From TrEMBL:
Keyword ATP-binding: yes
Domain AAA+ ATPase: 29-170
Taxonomy of the source species: Bacteria, Bacillati, Bacillota, Bacilli, Bacillales
Protein's recorded name: Magnesium chelatase
Source organism of this protein record: Pradoshia eiseniae
Keyword Cell inner membrane part of the UniProt annotation: no
Length: 310
């Protein structure tokens, strides 16, 4: 099933194997994605493709400073025709939600997503509704723009399982894009390759992936290094530790393994960490967040044993 899903995404989204793997990691881990890149790199296309490939509902919220929380989660209003209050569910009620340019929204509107992302539910006038399963928020922001934007608070950033930078395609991949999109939109040919029940089954199977004690120790060593690093002011939280384990299990599932290995941790660690840590003023003068995280990876001993299955 996962191979079919991967092929379906590859039929539209060209040449970004790591990005697609991270997207599947988030889907299998029941996590959310923060896409940060310049306009035109395919962020919206990626979200639409995964929604069509799993046969899920898709919703796009275009964030601007005047978008209100009720525009996101919905509201209760009085219908004079029926003489009673009625509830209107907002665009957050979908399987795949594209929160486009989330950093353009006011902080109050940004915070309206917290309950939905963490608890998979929304509350309107003290009435709570469960969101559909699976539920995946893919939020985008453009790193080069600062005018009219509001940086996401740490509590919001911590709700995203991974942060992904798509980047520009290679010359050959861009040639493939030119040919593929020359006459028609490949997205129109995408049809569901897995059912919603299959996705839920895969998520449950992912939770059963074995994590040995030495892999747990490896994760704890990495996490503690972010808390004790001389250039990191705020290290990874316990929520980030759990997120790393879930993401590593998902990576192992994608590779058709029943257990995690150090390479799974190494693959997800940078994407789990860079949006969660905060550098000190001195640290920011010497290195970027990405450079600090990769230096930690290089300095922590990798566990070696004959088998990680036990």
């Amino acid at each position: 099933m996962l191979d079919n899903l991967k092929d379906s995404i590859n039929s539209v989204f060209v040449g970004k194997e790591e990005t697609i793997d991270l997207l599947l990691v988030a889907l299998l881990s029941n996590g959310h994605i923060l896409l940060e890149d310049v306009p035109g790199t395919g962020k919206t296309l990626l979200a639409k493709t995964i929604a069509k490939s799993i046969g899920g509902t898709f919703s796009r919220i275009q964030f601007t400073p005047d978008v209100l929380p009720s525009d996101v989660i919905g509201l209760e209003y009085f219908n004079p025709k029926h003489g009673e209050f009625e509830k209107r569910i907002g665009p957050i009620y979908a399987n795949i939600v594209l929160a486009d340019e989330i950093n353009r929204a006011m902080p109050r509107t940004q915070s309206s997503l917290l309950e939905a992302m963490e608890e998979r539910q929304i509350t309107i006038e003290k009435q709570t509704d469960q969101l559909p399963t699976p539920f995946l928020v893919i939020a985008t922001q453009n790193p080069g723009e600062s005018h009219g934007t509001f940086p996401l608070p740490d509590a919001q950033l911590d709700r995203f399982l991974v942060k992904i930078n798509i980047g520009y395609p290679s010359r050959e991949d861009e040639r493939k894009i030119m040919k593929r999109f020359r006459r028609e939109d490949p997205l129109s040919d995408v049809s569901p390759v897995v059912r919603m029940e299959d996705v839920q089954k895969l998520q449950e199977e992912t939770k059963q992936i074995h994590i040995s004690d030495c892999i747990e120790d490896y994760v704890l060593d990495l996490v503690e290094s972010t808390r004790n690093h001389k250039w990191i002011e705020t290290g990874l939280s316990p929520r980030a530790t759990l997120a790393m384990l879930r993401a590593a299990q998902a990576k192992a599932k994608i590779e058709s393994r029943a257990y995690c290995i150090p390479e799974d941790i190494q693959f997800v660690f940078p994407h789990i960490s860079t949006h969660r840590i905060m550098l000190s003023m001195e640290g920011a003068l010497h290195m970027t967040k990405s450079e600090v995280i990769h230096s930690i990876l290089g300095n922590i001993d990798v566990p070696v044993e004959l088998s990680y299955e036990k």
